[in-house]
Structure formats: structure tokens, C-alpha cells
Design a protein that fits this description.
Chain lengths: ~80, ~375
């Protein structure tokens, strides 16, 4: 029941509900728990609610850091 | 999606596994071992799915914690839900709850007997049910950890705004930090570090774990659910242990922010207050749950229908209580994969897909041999 998945917001309706896209399918998403949601944002959706945004910049930075660490370990590991 | 797939890159995973081995060896050289509790059931599933347990050095063990809300639900709660269903109330619930054994039976059996039990993917469906059938009382089974609490309690917010009078919650909300404290307080459970839950942390924020690092000297690392997240999270824990440090590290900044999700927490604060909660396995823990504030008592099904939730009786022979605490592995349960399977579960840890027993059934059964 704890499943939470990233979706991209495609549409925001006047009542604050949104349409999120996941692997080509559209899902109704309640956006009331996230700050200033915008079309194009990624959100983590759990039980039909966006519980937080997924920050693409942070994701990119974290990935770059992971790559850098992995590279350094590859070189230095015995 | 790019930011999901990239966190599964096997080219990065390979040097990581070497790194885990060298850090494990460094720890062993100091005479140490690491017992790391993955608190959250979704981590347990991911660890199983990606075979991460098998990649670990011998002195590094991952033990599954109390982080599956279905599994920690006490049997007495199911008994109360069944009693309500028998009284002609419509029960709306997440699907997993249908198969959790109460003292006598399950809600699923109760439904086969004619009771009205509706499965909802989102709590909003319970509001739709209540609107569609104004002649019926609808009770939502309000279980879950911090991640789920705000979505569920927003039902009360909706009911108030839309003047829905036939909707209420049977609450058994649970909080993760008091469970971690209970784990640390138990001298029989030896945990050296926590791999902290990803989406619970998105709500409560990393600072909540600080007492565990500061006072208990346990490294706490927040990681996402993708394989690279988990492997790097384990490396970060071993780094801390090798260097003799204990701090809170957030490796899931793409979702978890410094102060968590204040909107969700404000909603929780408005409607809920702390209460002692009964956990399967851990027993009654003070301030480890949330219940509706007195002002909203008419949305509290336990009071509204006067169905007190008692302790109930756990399934005989089931070790879920021990499994939840990380004291025993499912592989040590004589019923595991014998009398107890996902299609015919004896205990709740085999019911929920995030339950430790069902994760082991799906991914790690062969280890038994
Ligand atoms: S295998 Fe089944 S009976 Fe054994 S602890 Fe797990 S859920 Fe309980």
C-alpha cells in the first residue's frame, strides 16, 4: 500500500486536481499537499496524492556525484 | 523516465559492490560488523528485487524493520473493522487490509459473507462512495505512516468543506521515529545503523533522526528506492562506521527537503493529536500514533459507532511480531512458505507486498536451502 511513483504533471484543473503521466497513462492526482505545483513538474504520487516534488536539478547533481565516486573507487580499489 | 533509469545504471553499481567489500573488510579489521536496519518495507522489496543482500560482505547484515503499516496493524483493529462491517457500515480500505488476519478472520471473508467492503486505491474514493450513497455510513480504514497520513486525513478536510455527514475514519495511524526508538531500547535487538525510509522522510524531514545519531550514536542515512540509492546509502553507513562517526545523511535530496513537507505536516497537526498506539510486535508505545482531535470526534468511527479497538489475538505460530522487530528472519519461521504463503497468509507480514515475509517469499526463498 506504500507504493509511490514519480509522475509528470500534464494538466492542472481549476479545482487544484491534476493529471499526472506515468509510462504513457494518465492518472488523476490530488496536488493539495505540494507547494506551487506546475505543469511539467515531476511529483511523487502515493495513494492518489502528490506528496512531494521531485527536483530534477538535485537528481542530476546526485547522479553526477554517484558517478564521480564510483569512478574514483574503480581507479583506487585494489 | 531519466531520473528513474539512471539510478539503476549497472556500470555504476559494479565499483560500488567492490567498495562495499573494502569497507566491510575495514570494519572487520577493527573487529566490527554492521547490522543495518532497512526500516521501510519498500526498501525491503527493493533489496530483494535487486538481490542486494547477496552482494554484501559477510560481516554486513541488512535486517528488515517495522516499516510496513499493514504488518504492524494489531489484530484487534481488524476485529473492530469486521464488527463495523457486520453492523451494515460500508468499509472502504486499501486492498492489502482485506487479507490481514484479525482474531477470528479477515475482512475479505467478511465481504464474501455479504458485508460491504470496498477497495480504494486513493482515500478520495471513500469520499466518492460517501457521496454516491448518502443513505450509508462509510468508514475508511485509516492506517499508514507519515507518508499516508496527510492524504488520508485530507478526507476529513474534504468532508468538512463538502458537508459530507456519512464519512468517518477508523484510525490506527503510526509514526516511524517512536518505532525506531523502541527498536533501540530493546536490548535483544542489535542495530548499528538505520537506512531511513525515503518517503516518510519526505514528510518529516531529516532532522527528525538527529537524536538517533547524536544520543544513540547510530548512523542514519536516507536513501531512495533505486538500486544505486540503496547501494550508496549502505556505503555511506559503512563509511560512517569505519570512521567512527554517527550522523544523519540525506542522499535523497531530489525528494527529501531539509524541513520535510510542511503543508502535509500542517494538515496533520490541524486534525490529529499524538496518542499511544498498539503495534503488532512492538506492543503499546506512547505517542507513537495519531488520532483525531476532540473537535473532529464525529469523524472518528471508533467513537461514532462505539466500537472500541482491543488488542485482539495474533495468529498462533506466526512470528510476525519478531520479524517486525528484526529479531527473526522470515526464514526462521516454520510456517514460512509451508502453511503461510501470499495466497494463503497466516500473518500480516505475508499479506502486504511490502511485508518482510512476502518480500522474502518472492525474492529470497532459495536462501533457505
Ligand atoms: S511466514 Fe507467515 S506465519 Fe511466519 S512470521 Fe511470516 S507471516 Fe507470520
Amino acid at each position: 500500500m506504500c507504493l509511490a511513483v514519480p509522475m509528470r504533471i500534464q494538466e492542472i484543473r481549476p479545482d487544484g486536481m491534476g493529471i499526472g503521466e506515468l509510462a504513457g497513462t494518465r492518472h488523476e492526482v490530488d496536488l493539495s499537499l505540494v507547494k506551487a505545483p506546475g505543469v511539467g513538474d515531476y511529483v511523487i504520487v502515493h495513494a492518489g496524492y502528490a506528496i512531494e516534488k521531485l527536483d530534477e536539478n538535485e537528481a542530476g547533481e546526485r547522479l553526477a556525484l554517484f558517478k564521480e565516486l564510483a569512478d574514483s573507487w574503480q581507479v583506487h580499489s585494489p | 523516465m531519466k531520473y528513474v533509469d539512471s539510478f539503476r545504471d549497472p556500470a555504476i553499481a559494479a565499483p560500488l559492490c567492490d567498495r562495499l567489500k573494502t569497507r566491510g573488510a575495514a570494519l572487520a579489521a577493527r573487529g566490527g560488523r554492521a547490522r543495518i536496519m532497512e526500516v521501510c518495507g519498500s526498501h525491503t522489496m527493493a533489496v530483494g528485487r535487486h538481490g542486494i543482500r547477496q552482494l554484501l560482505p559477510e560481516n554486513v547484515t541488512l535486517i528488515s524493520g517495522p516499516g510496513c503499516p499493514v504488518c504492524v496493524t494489531a489484530p484487534g483493529y481488524i476485529d473492530a473493522a469486521i464488527a463495523l462491517a457486520r453492523r451494515g457500515v460500508t468499509i472502504a480500505t486499501f486492498g492489502d487490509m482485506l487479507h490481514v488476519p484479525g482474531s477470528e478472520g479477515t475482512l475479505g471473508e467478511c465481504r464474501s459473507g455479504g458485508a460491504s467492503v470496498e477497495v480504494c486505491y486513493s482515500p478520495r474514493s471513500a469520499r466518492d462512495l460517501a457521496l454516491a450513497r448518502p443513505d450509508r455510513e462509510v468508514v475508511f480504514l485509516a492506517i499508514g505512516f507519515e507518508t499516508t497520513i496527510a492524504p488520508v486525513v485530507s478526507l476529513v478536510d474534504l468532508a468538512l468543506r463538502e458537508h459530507i455527514g456519512n464519512l468517518s475514519l477508523l484510525t490506527a495511524f503510526k509514526l516511524v521515529p517512536p518505532a525506531l526508538r523502541a527498536v533501540l531500547d530493546d536490548p535483544e535487538i542489535q542495530v548499528d545503523a538505520f537506512l531511513c525510509p525515503a518517503h516518510v522522510s519526505a514528510i518529516i524531514g531529516p532532522r527528525t533522526y538527529e537524536p538517533f545519531a547524536r544520543d544513540f550514536r547510530k548512523p542514519c542515512v536516507i536513501a531512495g528506492f533505486e538500486p544505486l540509492d540503496i547501494l550508496f546509502g549502505l556505503c555511506a553507513i559503512l563509511d560512517q562506521m569505519v570512521e567512527g562517526r554517527a550522523s544523519v545523511e540525506n542522499l535523497y535530496e531530489r525528494v527529501v527537503h531539509e524541513d520535510g513537507n510542511p503543508i502535509a505536516r500542517a494538515l496533520m497537526d490541524r486534525y490529529l493529536r499524538p496518542v499511544a498506539a498498539r503495534w503488532r510486535g512492538l506492543g503499546q508505545l506512547p505517542d507513537s500514533g495519531l488520532m483525531l482531535r476532540d473537535e473532529f470526534v464525529r469523524y472518528d468511527a471508533e467513537k461514532r459507532f462505539d466500537v472500541p479497538v482491543g488488542p485482539g489475538r495474533e495468529s498462533p505460530g506466526c512470528l510476525c511480531g519478531e520479524v517486525i522487530k528484526g529479531k527473526r528472519s522470515p526464514l526462521e519461521c516454520p510456517l514460512f512458505a509451508q502453511r503461510c504463503t501470499p495466497t494463503d497468509p497466516v500473518g500480516p507480514c505475508m499479506v502486504s507486498s511490502e511485508g518482510t515475509c512476502s518480500a522474502y517469499y518472492k525474492y529470497e526463498r532459495r536462501m533457505r536451502a
